[in-house]
Amino acid sequence: MSKALSLDMKLRSMCLTGMVNQIEPMAQRAQKEGWTFIRYVEYLCDVELAERARRKTERLLKQAALPEGKTLESLNQDDMPLKIRRQLPPLLEGDWVERADNILVFGLPGRGKTHLACAIARELILKRDYRVYFITTFNLVQQLLMAKRDLKISVLLDKLQRFDVIVLDDIGYVQQSREEMEVLFTFMAERYERKSLIITSNLVFSEWDKIFKDPMTTAAAIDRLVHHAVILELDGDSYRAKNAKERKQKGGETK
Known about the structure:
- This protein has two domains: 3-62, no CATH class; 65-242, P-loop containing nucleotide triphosphate hydrolases (Rossmann fold, 3-Layer(aba) Sandwich), CATH 3.40.50.
- 60% of the residues lie in helices and 11% in strands.
- It is built from 13 helices and five strands.
- The chain has helices at 3-13, 17-20, 23-33, 37-64, 82-93, 95-98, 113-128, 137-149, 153-160, 178-191, 209-212, 215-227, 239-254; strands at residues 102-107, 132-136, 165-169, 196-201, 229-234.
- It has a five-stranded parallel beta sheet with strand order 2-3-4-1-5.
- Helix 3 (23-33) packs antiparallel against helix 4, helix 5 packs parallel to helix 7 (113-128) and helix 8 runs antiparallel to helix 9 (153-160).
- The longest helix has 28 residues, at 37-64.
């Protein structure tokens, strides 16, 4: 066994995998440029830390399950209301997560609610290493119902509570039965003043009785959400309709 291979194995056994591919070329560079031993070791530590940060970000992005392509770079901010463009920068910094605040995104279908929510969530991972999770309201409710049936709802709620931010998409599309409404309310109550939510909805608050059915439960849910919340209202034309029209026009031009 060569010394190089032995060192490689030792580094891997200590989980210093970021150093493995750099230790030999950097040793040659250090000798050539006359680095001190301290500088050489410090450089290798920087390499290891950078690689660990990269892997962590990669892991958090995978765990978040955010839809592909819905990033800040692909978000057309020029089409958003001026008020939201002004609200966006501080939201991207993530201080509101430390306060367990919420973001509520309202708008008719096709206005870019999900894209905006996911863009914010993705930046929270990239800038602050927050644990984020994206799920549609329908899928969340089904998971909660199955957990309740199996007497494991506390286990699922504890698992979800590990995420700093949960993006709950399309709450307005789900017309819950009483049992579905109860588990959804339980989930929201569990996160109240503990962890953050980003919720998208095509229904304004005055229509949330369609979701929770019971007036008292509706009022309680809204009260918990808005107590510490930033509300983003997307109006204007449908982005999907606008994009479809542009594609149609381009198609006509090429004929």
